[in-house]
């Protein structure tokens, strides 16, 4: 399969290139960037030297349509919505890694993103690509989920889909590595400000909240809201979510594990930890796995769910390739079944 | 004031020495260690070279009683209870940094610590030294609080003391730097296992849970239990607690801030952040401050409290010196009013 | 090709498994450990869950000889020499990652390693596997080079082989990530002791010195000694060597680059940086590349060579697979031509 | 003593404030910034909340002259030269932390800094304040040394002043923490680019080279040049220099140590490590110490000197206060004799 990547110089684009390079059935047809052209990507990213020789090209839709079957938009929110149309209209597979097509309601998008929304028919057409639960295998226009949303939704799905929890009880304490803030240098990504530090940001206002709510309420319409926090921890890659919910009825630890094991028995990238074991960021580093640990506290009738991913892989580029594999009828794990980088 | 430190070679003991060295009214009379003697501390800790020349001495209670007015026990839980008696009986000021005298109920200690408890009369005699709320200024035998307990209790006190929250709603998501695990090398303190990582430990079983419960229920006896999690983050020093509670009645952000400002108006080491601002670990590094940020989410009727400390200072040695200042009738901030180390 | 890994639970063994898993022409026949048996590796290393299901088996040479064509010894120095014989005698390909067979002179080994040496005929038989310069393609018993030695020798080879430098002028300032110290927790691998720190170790006594000297003197017998330092930096993976040498004759920057480009024109894993550009550890992370940057200072007549590798890949498991590829007549880069993990 | 700080919002200025705050004989009269005014410093730096309440004021020389005896210029190179005059002319003590007055030769400044130099008479008037070797105790206009220069010069002084080394043999391999690059976010201070990384910068072109040469040649005019490298390591604070020199005559380890011990016997902030012991960054963190370790390799006739400092203290603000102490006739260590922050 011939693919193009638009937005090749951001962290999401670079990770796509890393993963696509080792996919057995993919050829990278072209790489594109708004910010830079007329150079090879390796001129800016020395890790690619002698491996990826493709030039960074201008974005010429006609040419891309001519040479590629699949286009990945690794462009920021606010950009994807303006450039997606030609590829969608031409019938290419389009997988967008931004937030532009995730929310079905344009007004909600405008409120949380502070930007004008994509057109209503495009919002209707795009399919939210939470890979483990995406049903419409004929969909070719995919809104790839956000990193926090992926970790949170995979952590909550078994309980919420079966409507086993008090719908008002969901509290998500999410922590993210610094790469989640992107490549642009800011004071909140400065080493001396972030190393040996931890900080909370976007209190009650993170744009993944409506995305999570949209999916959760599709599973249990009684959920009125979630409490959702986001913090920065001094790691490069990784999302670590600690989720607290109250079951409607007390649950045994065993029942809880069985529920999760069963839900994900056909999902190669979700690994339920054995009882009394909790995942760490490092065990999924640079891989497409979402590892989930579970606890139940009888005293407080609280289930704790720990769900970890690599934000650049399962939270972005890896899940995008999972979605591409569905479209292309490849095996779900083709190109993604490698071992996490440890230590 | 002449002071001795027993357990001088652990992180708590070393931090006591660092802070006592710059206290204007204190002389270190002697330093003691179980593991090492007949050498100076600087032989093992080169940062002390040419500054602290005291030898590490054997623990001779008669001699210590003779030369010191105050003894700090920076010994691990399970040791302090066996060595405290002579100093208490001799009427010295005794400040214990371990968990041995914090819990009034010996059975609770034995359950959570897995060790035999101190005698009932010593448990009764020891005063829990949460400095901002310690009332008994004549107390000379102090159980210095745990690090998580300090951050959590200072974060919850204004709401709980005024019985403003649903007593079943408390969820504490605590994160600790690696120095909290002590100086002994283990696989969970190994750099390659902890850097670029985050992990959860002691799920629902951390020994600070009963300590927090004992204090909270003294403020509001209706609190049946708390949900309390502890994670390791790749920083050397610091506790970052994110606390979620539901107020009995909706609160304005302004009322919330006023409540906290008022509660701590005479507490030099608790700094309430301005509205919409949340503290980071780095802003209290190497200092005795506890910085607290506050948010209220109308949609979920949830208050989020962020409370951060340096675990070795406000969570151990600094608070111990605050307690010593009370006993000695020094100003509360004597020796502690320095600026945090930033960046 | 069927392969076995002995010493599967150390960092070297784990990295071999990670790389062999994605090698297109290899099957892992069995995994072995001294310390642990009767369990799967994934029980101890959750990153392998659902990917590597092999049990950890006892070391039964007859069985290994029966099922495998190649044996990797990822055992520590002092162990490999005691266990290698059956596989060598049986004619298996044996690739040893320890220092036991690198030094031709057993007395030198005993001096630097403080252990008794392997037998003289085994020392004679083993071929030093510095992949880019290993000539004997029929060799099946390989002593895989050390991490510092690899970075240093690849950095020096073009100048030394052509005898272009003052043989008394070599100074190597080497820095290593903490994984080079292995998996065992010690005070020098403790997070709180290593993070935000840098320290020098084994001053003038690192065991890679004789290994480097042996190879350098095979290229230029006039080299009497090298000055070689080793420091620990707070990174998990990586060797960063800064090498200073004085050319016999002043060299232009261009001539220097041409020399290196020419030397390595057929070496897929050595990447000479463009002029005035110097490699970073991150650009080779988790990959088999050795990236080299070059400078010449006219004022001091000094060439500076910066040579970086991932110590666990090019400095251990990756180079071992390069050597296996030679033996098996695979392409040199088979299973190794993936993109480094960045960022 | 009343002091003012101009450039209070940079890392150097903030560190000055931290140290001046705990100096027993100093009052901060005013704080000034170019970038920000009409706010308190604590509005931007929450670590200062409730401790430093001074406003950030405009730079009004007449007022500063009226209220202060000493002015610290913590302004960047290129700024100090333009603003120093009024304070110097008014006879205030002026201590400049930038590079503007360090080089006696304006042309050399212009070549290495790429900016126009201060006037010749000001360059002549300013005294280079390497505290341990500054002789002119009547000097009131001080050019405070650079961080690399301080670590390098203190490491080399005993050998160079006694002309014991081959003047062509000096090689300095310097490593710096990220705070050395200042507070402005750039791609080379971005956490994801610097953590788990190491990189070399300003190859053979660092602006501290002429500063070091100027001082070294004042001690031994035969030194023609030095080889000097600078690398970034992922730590917040710290300079770690590894220096290689060849003695004219072979030296015993004992003679080497005696030389250094003797040279620094009256220098409270230089601590010579015991034989076979080498300093780490952490043992001087947040302190004014320069710790030095020494080795001699007979095989290569090379002395290795390891010299470490905290770049923001001994490499900037701390040494500035040492210089202020000289001027004011305070004890050299007043306000600086605290214990480094460890761990």
UniProtKB/TrEMBL annotation, chains A, B, C, D:
GO biological process, one term: L-arginine biosynthetic process
Domain Semialdehyde dehydrogenase NAD-binding: 2-141
First-listed, main subcellular location of the protein, grouped into a coarse class: cytoplasm
Gene3D superfamilies on file: Dihydrodipicolinate Reductase, domain 2, NAD(P)-binding Rossmann-like Domain
Keywords: Amino-acid biosynthesis, Arginine biosynthesis, Cytoplasm, NADP, Oxidoreductase
E.C. designation(s): 1.2.1.38
CDD domains noted in UniProt: AGPR_1_C (cd23934), AGPR_1_N (cd17895)
Gene Ontology CC annotation, any one: cytoplasm
UniProt-annotated catalytic positions: 147
Pathway: Amino-acid biosynthesis; L-arginine biosynthesis; N(2)-acetyl-L-ornithine from L-glutamate: step 3/4
Origin superkingdom: Bacteria
Matching InterPro entries: AGPR (IPR050085), AGPR_AS (IPR023013), AGPR_dimerisation_dom (IPR058924), AGPR_type-1 (IPR000706), NAD(P)-bd_dom_sf (IPR036291), Semialdehyde_DH_NAD-bd (IPR000534)
GO MF entries: N-acetyl-gamma-glutamyl-phosphate reductase activity; NAD binding; NADP+ binding
Catalytic activity: N-acetyl-L-glutamate 5-semialdehyde + phosphate + NADP(+) = N-acetyl-L-glutamyl 5-phosphate + NADPH + H(+)
Localisation per UniProt entry: Cytoplasm
Pfam families tied to this protein: Semialdhyde_dh, Semialdhyde_dhC_1
NCBIfam families: argC (TIGR01850)
Family from the record: Belongs to the NAGSA dehydrogenase family. Type 1 subfamily.
Record function comment: Catalyzes the NADPH-dependent reduction of N-acetyl-5-glutamyl phosphate to yield N-acetyl-L-glutamate 5-semialdehyde.
Protein name: N-acetyl-gamma-glutamyl-phosphate reductase
Organism, scientific name: Listeria seeligeri
